[in-house]
Amino acid sequence: MAATQTAERARGVMVTYVPREEGDKHSTVWNGVSFKANIPTEMFPIAQFPNSKHFVVIDAPHKIDQPDGSTITVYRQTRQCMVELAKLNPHFEVAGFEKPEEEKRKPGRPRIPKNANEYRSYAMGWITSSNDVQTLLKRWDDEDELREKIGCGEDDTNYLVPFFDARVHILKGQQE
What we know:
Blueprint: H1 2-9, E1 13-17, E2 27-30, E3 33-36, E4 41-43, E5 55-65, E6 71-81, H2 82-88, E7 92-94, H3 116-129, H4 133-142, H5 144-149, H6 154-175
Antiparallel strand pairs: 1-4, 1-7, 2-3, 5-6
């Protein structure tokens, strides 16, 4: 009964997974805890619940001074609260904790595909999220060189063209 009352009184810390770059996942699982993008997840620090799944065991560095004046670093397994680790991770925000300005991660630039298979996924992303016909048409033309450089063949463009044409059709219908 006492443990139940403690759990009811304890307040968790809200931790939010924030995708930063184009291509980041819309959800992630960390140590068995599921996070959906931009939706806070309540986590409980170890001090409140020592048996909580909201901690990880990490190899933490410990410096040891030697008699000769040198310092060695050894790594010991240490239980670490996921909330504290999230504070250091640029893909997570912790309620009530403001990251120092120099540690804030600036939004990245879009990932550039390195092969035809990556390009298909990459192109589907920008095709489906486009909101303007002219921008869509221009980008398709502008990426001709990229498609050639990474080895996109006729089969790759044949795969994408129906999606591209459908998006152009939808956008033209919205503009009328």
